Amino acid sequence: MLRRAAMAVLAGAGAALLLGGGLGPLVGVVLAVGAYRALARARSPADRRAELEEELLTRQLPLSAELLAACLGSAASPSVAVLAVGRSVGAPMGPRLVAIGAELALGAPPELCWNRLGEQHPSLAALARCMVRTSVGGSPVAEPLIGLAHARRTAAGRAAHARVRRAGVLATAPLGLCFLPAFVLIGVVPVVVGLTSRFALAG
Question: Is the pTM of this model over 0.70?
Answer without folding.
Answer: no
